[in-house]
Amino acid sequence: MAKSRQGERVYQHTPTIEDPAEFGLAIVKWWNAMQPDFRHSDAGMPKPVYSTDTSTGKDWALLRRAGPNGLVSMLTLLAWWGQSLQSRTQWQDDSGPLWTEAITDVTKVINVLKAVSGGVKKRKADTDPQIKGSKR
Fold first, then answer.
1. Mean pLDDT value across the chain
2. Which of 39, 41, 17, 15 is nearest to 29 (CA)?
3. Beta-carbon contacts of residue 23 (< 8 Å; ≥ 6 apart)
4. How far apart are CA 41 and CA 39, in angstroms?
5. Could you give the CA distance from residue 95 to residue 86 in angstroms, rounded to a whole number?
6. Mean pLDDT of 78-104
């Protein structure tokens, strides 16, 4: 890892994943654990519930978070998992179908989050000429 200009850590190389199937199972377990109660499952992937009912909107908000337990982390892990599938040996379990299922689930969840959020609200632009162009 190297530091970017703002001091954030960035990856220069994809990590080496020795066992894509084991890595994938860990990702699915973590993804399932962070779901709202109505999507929790005892076996693998979360339940395929994608309701945009506004009464469950606040439950979906659990997934709208940043940081190490957020969607960006999930997308990064899915990319790493997908890349690791290319280097799987013939003796390792094929977790490709589970990866595809996870990609589909995350895509549907993102679409639900978009639907229940009502769109992104933008800040009003400053009209004061003294404020324009200056750093805040």
1. 80
2. 41
3. 17, 80, 81, 84, 95
4. 6
5. 11
6. 89
Measure the CA dihedral 94/95/100/106, to 10°.
-170
- To which residue do tokens 């978009």 refer? 114
**pTM to 2 decimals?**
0.74
Asked if 99 and 24 count as a contact pair (C-beta separation under 8 A), the reply is yes
CA distances from 58 to 38, 54, 64 (A): 12, 8, 10
What are the angstrom distances between the C-alpha of 2 and each of 7, 8, 11, 13, 66? 9, 8, 7, 10, 21
pLDDT score for 101? 96
Task: Give the C-alpha separation, 45 to 39, whole Å.
Answer: 9
Q: What is the CA radius of gyration of the chain?
A: 19
Least confident of 75-89, 99-113, 117-131: 117-131
- Show Cβ contacts of residue 38 under 8 Å, excluding neighbours closer than 6 positions: 47, 49, 51, 56, 59
Within 1-132, residue ranges assigned H as helices are: 20-33, 57-60, 71-85, 96-117
